[in-house]
Amino acid sequence: MPTARPVRWDYVNEQIITATVHGRYLVHPPAVPGPAPLLVGFHGYAEGAEIQLERLRAIPGSEDRLCVSIQALHPFYRRRDNHVVASWMTSQERDHAIADNIAYVNACLDAVISEWTIAPGAVFTGFSQGVAMAYRAAVHSSLTAAGVVAAGGDIPPELAPESLHRIQSALLIRGTADAWYTKEKLAEDERRLRSAGVEVASLEFTGGHEWSAEATAAAGQFMADRQRPTNSRAASDQSGK
């Protein structure tokens, strides 16, 4: 049997090609028909749209919103139970993946807007890996982002202050034992957002890398406050619609 020759990696020319893939998103209508603000969710690594929709629906006040949970484009089987889960991206071809994800999320939101009557006051939520997508969606969509709820994840590094300024307010959440979203990362996120003119609130609960009951309650209060704009910037945005 012939011996395989080693690959001469210095001869290899890597190429990137555009491909069409299909994604999925879940929509839960408000309890009362009619115009409703959006509550958009992005799940974490090795999760699916279903679990983020459950988180959204558990938030007090979500019954008055059109809940949309978007699943990442890269599904795989979770080893422990063979359940289909997904990932938003890896470090490989990161810039291309970001562009693909932004275009995909915008297509999902455009489809929702074309089918449902939307009221002002969209809130974007994310957990863990989905936090970066919540921020990206908030600054790149055609919707005015009344708020971002970020649990267990940080702001992606590529978002400049002028982009973050599109967000009116943000709620940052971490567990005290979360080794990934550290106290230092939360403090840096607070600094970046405030320097961009974003109203910031934060919550630290006793726990780890998780979406906790405390996070659910805080998200409900955050949304209720967004329905009662008290700062001049929010009022200005509403008057310009």
What is this structure, in a nutshell?
With 241 residues, the chain is an alpha/beta fold.
Main beta-sheet strand count, sense and barrel state: 7 strands, mixed
Estimated share of beta-strand residues: 15-25%
* Structural class label: alpha/beta
CATH class: Alpha Beta
- In total, how many domains does the architecture comprise? 1
Give the H and E element order: EEHEEEHEHEHEHEHH
Taking pLDDT < 50 over at least 5 consecutive residues as the criterion, the unreliable ranges are: 229-241
**How are strands sequenced across the largest beta sheet?**
1-3-2-6-7-8-9
For the record, the CATH architecture stands as 3-Layer(aba) Sandwich
Number of strands: 9
Name of the CATH superfamily: Alpha/Beta hydrolase fold, catalytic domain
Shape annotation: globular
Could you estimate the helical fraction of the residues in percent? 25-40%
Notes on the protein architecture:
The chain is of the alpha/beta class and 241 residues long. Strand 4 and strand 5 (84-87) form a beta hairpin. It has a single domain, classed as Alpha/Beta hydrolase fold, catalytic domain (Rossmann fold), CATH 3.40.50. It is built from 7 helices and 9 strands. Helix 2 (94-115) crosses helix 3 (129-140).
Layout of helices and strands:
Blueprint: E1 25-28, E2 38-42, H1 49-58, E3 66-70, E4 74-77, E5 84-87, H2 94-115, E6 122-127, H3 129-140, E7 145-151, H4 161-164, E8 169-175, H5 183-195, E9 199-205, H6 213-226, H7 232-239
Helix pairs in contact: 2-3
Which descriptors apply to this entry?
alpha/beta, Rossmann fold, 7-stranded mixed sheet, two-stranded antiparallel ribbon, 34% helix
